[in-house]
Design goal:
The protein contains 3 helices and 4 strands, in the order H-H-E-E-E-E-H. 24% of the residues lie in helices and 22% in strands. It is of the alpha+beta class. The protein has a single domain, classed as Beta-lactamase Inhibitory Protein, Chain:B, domain 1 (2-Layer Sandwich), CATH 3.30.1450. A hairpin with a 2-residue loop joins strand 1 (58-62) and strand 2.
């Protein structure tokens, strides 16, 4: 029996799985969106956007947030406005742009096209 105990321990140890190592923690690194050419729009309030582009084609509000959409035959620009703090006026913190058919277009190019639309669509 004394000879079986070490052999039994070796057999059980051979069946054991090695302890799984925890996966390394992944750190989410935000990817900055380039803002070159967007200086006239980023950080602006709704009134400034209306002065720049004219009356929005859509004005959507959800709580304190707001989305203004401006469209032309060249592109559609969605400006997302969020307040920085409680009671502050919402300002543009993100822009999305696309061609009318939904295909991609550079945001700065869309801003430039909309500023030259002269009220025509």
């Amino acid at each position: 029996m004394k000879r079986l105990a070490p052999a039994l321990l070796l057999a059980v140890a051979a069946c054991a799985q090695p302890a799984a190592r925890p996966a390394p923690a992944r750190v989410a690194v935000p990817i900055p969106f380039p803002t070159l050419g967007l200086e006239r729009v980023m950080g602006q309030d709704a009134g400034t956007l209306v002065q720049l582009f004219g009356k929005p084609d859509a004005d959507v509000r959800e709580g304190a947030a707001r989305k203004l959409q401006f469209a032309s035959r060249i592109c559609v620009l969605d400006a997302y406005l969020y307040p920085k703090g409680s009671g502050s006026e919402p300002r543009v913190s993100y822009l999305d742009a696309r061609e009318p058919d939904g295909s991609a277009i550079d945001r700065a190019s869309c801003v430039a096209a909309l500023t030259r639309r002269d009220g025509g669509r």
